[in-house]
Amino acid sequence: MLQFVQLVLNGSSIGCIYALVALGFVLIYKATEVVNFAQGELMMFGAFFAYTLITLFGFSYWIGAAGAILGMMAFGYLLDRVVLRPVLGQPAFAMIMLTIGIGYVSRSVAGLVPGWGTAAYAIDTPFSAEGLPLLTTAETSLVISEQNLSIIGATVLFCAVLFAFFRYTRIGVAMQATSQNQLAAYYMGIPVKSVFSLIWAISAGVAAAAGVLLAPITLIDTNMGFIGLKAFPAAVLGGFGSIPGAIVGGLTIGIIESLAGFYLPQGFKDIAAYIVLLAVLVLRPEGLFGQATRKKV
Amino acid sequence: MTEPILRVSNIETYYGPIMAIRGISLHIDPGKIVTVLGANGAGKTTLLKTISGAMDPQKGTVEFEGREIQKQDPDRVMRAGISHVPEGREVFPFLTVHENLMMGAFTRRDREGIQRDLELVLGYFPVLEARSKQQAGQLSGGEQQMLAIGRALMSHPRLVLLDEPSLGLSPILVNDIFGIIERINREQGTTILLVEQNAHMALSIADYGYVLEVGRVVMEDTAERLRDKEDIKEFYLGMKDAGSRGKRRWKRVKTWR
């Protein structure tokens, strides 16, 4: 039993990373109806930003993490402003192909930047990888490392901040309004195009946070963005377009992977997420938290 | 003679290759209710969208209070003082009624002014106060229409574009809503451009009217005189003289054809 709880605990921390990346997918999709396939690459850039600030320039972990998040927010804003806005109004697949292209280019560019390259890097964090005992019985004990704790704690914190932002600030409510009815938002005087850029900024910031948190576990390399392939089913599982859904979806996928890796034969760990996704889509096609809108006439 | 608050000159608007508006000119005097009548596909909604900036005209100008506003983004037009109540209400379904109304005041900073207008709107539509905490998507069609109009008033506009407020509402509700539109115009001095299929209701509250057919203005006059015209009576109000049936020619042609 304790072992099961331990696996769930381990799964939740990687699940939090999936959740943060999935959150980025959902934020952009909800507001702009574009699926940003470069979300994982934004995370990779965030991690490299942090690596540059912490390891190369010697700043402290906290300054490096904050700098990476703020830097990526600026990057996300400019990415939308410069690359995506000119394509606005074109068919959705054009936008989606563009984000796939951005993903490819990002991986190559990251390999070319002096000091980054294609090797794997680590950053120093104040969190140890050693397990803290939570509960000890005669034969075994339940442990959690500071690293995992930092991931779970930071995810909770980011979600709380985002929730408060969307719920209580004027611009946050305006973002919700934009995602619910773009034309009506325009008629209210909401500058929809700038709102899109802000959404990209937030999304990139969340991705950067995921990258910084993930760095001590998997190391930083140009291909770490492929975690997007796990976060994407997490977003679909939650009902693409639902923020709580993205978080629950991410956690679910993380926990299932962790359990499958232990109880099932080798190889199931990597496909378990997709099996669950298919099952959910068959039984509940709108996802776990999908919102069905009906228009009244 | 006062300067018109809105002057539309020779606009032409396309949906891709399809010309929806073929050179429309109209003007609205401040403080008046002006109605635009026409059948489906006459270009009424396109006209409003062109004024509010949701669509760009290929040719022609739209002047609001003397300044050209055509081809600007809708948020800029709105900031200039034009509020658009779109066809089919288009409320924000997952925001509460209160949040919807506050979105109408998104461009404003003056707290007291917003509060005053909120009370004003709730005075006109008391049902919105009772539903204030409910999600807008759960309201009935009539309540959503009231919310859409109330939301547009929250910006304290000088001109309101109303696109078919009667769409899908019961006759009693249509009566109520038109009564309130008339009161808003009279009590607040808000100029209103009203697009309607319900010619009877529209002409009963309007000062001036335009009739649109396939993208052109085919007739314009005071509402009073439009009500009395034979063509309008027959084609838009559905009225016929008693006993005229026998003498009526099938496929009678409108006088402007």
Describe the protein:
The complex is a heterodimer of chains A (297) and B (257). By secondary structure, chain A is mostly helical. Chain A has one domain: ABC transporter involved in vitamin B12 uptake, BtuC (Orthogonal Bundle). Chain A is built from 11 helices and 2 strands. Chain A has helices at residues 2-32, 39-56, 61-84, 92-112, 146-168, 170-180, 182-187, 192-218, 228-237, 243-263, 268-283; strands at 131-136, 141-145. Chain A has a two-stranded antiparallel sheet with strand order 1-2. In chain A, helix 1 (2-32) packs parallel to helix 5 (146-168). The model of chain A has no long low-confidence stretch (mean pLDDT 88). In chain B, helix 3 (97-104) packs parallel to helix 6. Chain B starts with 5 loop residues before the first strand and ends in a 22-residue tail after the last helix. The longest helix of chain B has 18 residues, at 171-188. Chain B has 2 domains: 1-81 and 157-240 and 248-257, P-loop containing nucleotide triphosphate hydrolases (Rossmann fold, 3-Layer(aba) Sandwich); 90-156, no CATH class. In chain B, a hairpin with a 2-residue loop joins strand 4 and strand 5 (67-68). Chain B contains 10 helices and 10 strands. The radius of gyration of chain B is 19 Å and the shape is globular. Chain B is α/β, with parallel strands linked by helices and 257 residues long. In chain B, the strands form 2 sheets. In chain B, strands 6-7-8-3-9-10 form a 6-stranded mixed sheet, sandwiched between helices. A 4-stranded antiparallel sheet of chain B has the order 2-1-4-5, with helices on one face. The interface between A and B is medium-sized, with 24 and 35 residues.
